[in-house]
Amino acid sequence: QVQLVESGGGLVQPGGSLRLSCAARNIFSINVMGWYRQAPGKQRELVASVTTGGITNYADSVKGRFTVSRDNAKNVYLQMNTLKPEDTAVYLCNVETTYNGDFWGQGTQVTVSS
What are 110's strand-pairing partners? Predict the structure, then answer.
């Protein structure tokens, strides 16, 4: 029952755009929702996050290009514009809760290539 369902990944050319979506199913007491990414041979990094109060946080490499948002404390979105090859990675949805720990999606592949 508890699940994070991600969608929106794919192959796009440099300069293109993608919008990632994540739906939290049967997860309660959510504090923060956000997106991380992992590329082969690299450590996982925070891309963007948003709290229940609407406070956002972005990696320096995506500021001005990506926008994170949420609605009904159950869905989180990542609008990615002006994509670069270095944005290529598996993007994972993350949810932090007050009482039940953290939850992770399985990840969606984003590939930026000509």
Answer: 10, 89
pLDDT of 1 reads 80
- Cβ(61)–Cβ(47) below 8 Å: no
In sequence order, the 6+-apart residues with CB closer than 8 A to the CB of 105 are 4, 5, 6, 22, 92, 93, 94
> In terms of Cα–Cα distance, which of 36, 8, 3 is closest to 103?
3
Dihedral sign of CA atoms 99, 59, 23, 3 in order: negative
Question: pLDDT by residue (tens digit) across 2-26?
Answer: 899 999 999 999 999 999 999 999 9
Q: Name the token pair of 89.
A: 């990675």
